[in-house]
Amino acid sequence: MIQNGADVIALVDRRARVLSVGPSIRSVLGYSEEEFVGQNAHTFIHRNDRKSARKSFLDLVARPG
Hints:
Helices cover 35% and strands 11% of the residues. By secondary structure, it is α+β, with helices and mostly antiparallel strands. Strand 1 and strand 2 form a beta hairpin.
């Protein structure tokens, strides 16, 4: 699903560091997988939305499932 899907699906750690991403990243966002992996996912969120996105992410990390 990740390898052949059109959606960008990324696996991130608890600090939002991208561990892996599907190949659709190039067609959707223009980045290669190598450019995206290792980056903090929050850096790709518009600066006006980062605070709320970071809060939502931390809430999810605190309450998995």
